[in-house]
Every structure is written in C-alpha cells, then in structure tokens.
Amino acid sequence: MSPPIEVSCRVDYRPVHVTHFCEYSGRVEYRSATGCTIEATERPKPGSTLELRLYVPGSAWPIRVTRATVAWSHWDEFTVEFGDVSLQDRDQLQRCLTEASLPAAA
Predict the structure, then answer these.
(1) pTM listed for this prediction
(2) Mean pLDDT computed over 56-85
C-alpha cells in the first residue's frame, strides 16, 4: 500500500453481491493510491467486497471504486484496498492526493 495522506471526505459504500439493497455513509480519514481508511458506524467484516463513492473536495463527481476489499476492521474504522477503479477515476484520485500533499501557500 502506498503511503497514506490525511484527507477527510465523505464516502458512501455498499456491499457487493447482496440480495437486498443497503448503503452506508462514512468519512475517509486517510487515503492512498491503493486504498483508504473509513470511519463509520457500520463496519463490514474483513474480506468483504464493497463498492465505494468518494466525494473528494473540489470535484464535481465522486470517485467510484467498483470493487474494494476490506483488509482490516476495528472499533469504528476499517481499511479497504482498491480493486477495480476506472483509469479516469484513478487519475482523479492521484491528482487529489498530489494536491493534498503539497504544502499550503502562506
């Protein structure tokens, strides 16, 4: 996993391969190019597969991750590793990470 950067944004997520519709919201606290840590009241179990929509600051559309795997879950946080992300969304994610890592102008 690449180094995480502390950037907070809203995330909506839902389990993949379920027979009924359910969707949850949380906050991304740390992101990297390959995954993120999510703070939420509903924690999926490690190994679960999710679909994510990351609402990054300054973007008109959310970044869509069609498949992410839960790697770790504890208390009110869980970490996912991104699986399937379109090239356009991957580029947008990388731009957001680059901008977040730049020092703030004085």
Answers:
(1) 0.86
(2) 93
